[in-house]
Amino acid sequence: MKLNVGQRRMYLLALIIILLAVALLCVWRLWLADGEGGETAGSATPAPEITFEPVSPTPGTGATLGVSGGVDTVVYYQDNFGYLVPVLTSVPYEDGIAKATLSLMVASGPNDMQAARLGLRTVIPENVTMDLDIEKGKARIDLSKEALELPDAGAEYNMIAAIVQTLTEFDTVDRVEFLFGGQKLEKLPHGTDVSGEFTRGDLNLEKQDASAQGKGEKLTLYFPGDSASVVVPVTRMVYSRADLDTAVLEMTKGPLSEALDEAVPKGCGLIDVQVENGVAKLNFTKEFMQIVNNIDGGRLALKALVVTCTQFEGVDSVEIYVEGEKWDAGEGVLTAPTFSNVATEIESAAIQAQSDAIFEGE
């Protein structure tokens, strides 16, 4: 893409604004951590990385206390096409970390700005307040009536699904019940059923023919999203075993929606899959080499492929082979990430993309 002088100046200004926002956020977090740390903040002994277990509630997947005192937790956003996207982010520690996590998903100036830095959007309407009680595996959440002001059924579904997925990331929650303004409702204004209790569901279930519904096994695949910095999980029904071989084969078919990008170039075939000592060795036809033509050199597509493969037990990393010859993807590219989408990594990728766009025309 060639940019004129005016466009390059606008991109440079946008990059400077993003860098300043990130810098201010880092300073704020450091200041907050110093304020909470008290006398221990200057200790010569670094804080260990331990599993964080506050009294209410106990976080599960993705909730750990790092050296900065921030809690790593999973937030669910949506992209511009309505796909739900999990993001590992860090929040200051406080009692009731589940509610604090949900508060990041409510539309507001700071929350919307953070979501925009990730190329994503918040899922809960502006000015929504909430009460949350967790007891014996059940989370009862009471949302204020502003939660009823969503524009359509798709937005209603995403709000409910995102809240359920977020809460069931915690070990103490296996089901969720909704109230609105203190009242139990049967349906939301656009028809979304909220009468019962919700358990963790299938994320971004792909649309299929009516004849195929309810048949086969479910398989989670990851594809590059429209933000160019996140991978999006989708649930696909397959008619064979939902194992590694099937997952890689399905990845060669690409996503069913044009809103997502391919992780494997079109026309590329799969020769075979082998696993040795925790390494999944994927052997593709020569068309795989076209991946380097992606705008980022194929790094996000490779990440989607790795995240898909490493979700299977016994797979820690991936090696790519083209027509039987090992293909060099670059150091660290094919190892399992800490999480499918990490907020700090996405922000860095977005800044790099802006920088590349500015200087591409030079």
Give a description of the structure.
This protein has seven helices and 13 strands. The chain has helices at residues 5-37, 97-103, 109-117, 153-167, 244-253, 299-310, 343-359, and strands spanning 50-51, 64-65, 70-78, 84-92, 130-135, 138-143, 175-180, 217-224, 231-238, 270-276, 279-284, 317-322, 325-327. α1 (5-37) runs antiparallel to α7 (343-359). The longest helix is centred in the N-terminal third of the chain and has 33 residues, at 5-37.
What characteristics describe this protein?
four-stranded antiparallel beta sheet, 362 residues, single chain, four-stranded mixed beta sheet, 2 domains, alpha+beta, globular
Topology diagram in text:
Layout: H1 5-37, E1 50-51, E2 64-65, E3 70-78, E4 84-92, H2 97-103, H3 109-117, E5 130-135, E6 138-143, H4 153-167, E7 175-180, E8 217-224, E9 231-238, H5 244-253, E10 270-276, E11 279-284, H6 299-310, E12 317-322, E13 325-327, H7 343-359
Helix pairs in contact: 1-7
